[in-house]
Write a structure and sequence with these properties.
By secondary structure, the protein is an all-alpha fold. The protein has 2 helices and no strands. The chain is flat. Bound molecules: zinc ion.
């Protein structure tokens, strides 16, 4: 997983190859356009990411 503790002065797109998903690189550190990854893998990675966030979202809604 990507390091989310980047300096604020460093844009998310830094280091992301042109045409690749900035969001996917920010969250997963790669996207389906990167070598050795497929679109199905990226979709699954997003599903796992969302599933892991679900308890936090439900907890926040309770407040
Ligand atoms: Zn990529």
């Amino acid at each position: 997983m990507a390091d989310l503790a980047r300096p604020a002065s460093q844009p998310y797109s830094e280091g992301v190859p042109l045409g690749h998903s900035i969001a996917a690189h920010r969250i997963h550190g790669w996207c389906y356009l990167c070598a050795d990854h497929t679109l199905a893998e990226e979709v699954l990675a997003w599903q796992v990411w969302a599933y892991e966030l679900l308890p936090q979202m439900l907890e926040r809604d309770r407040d």
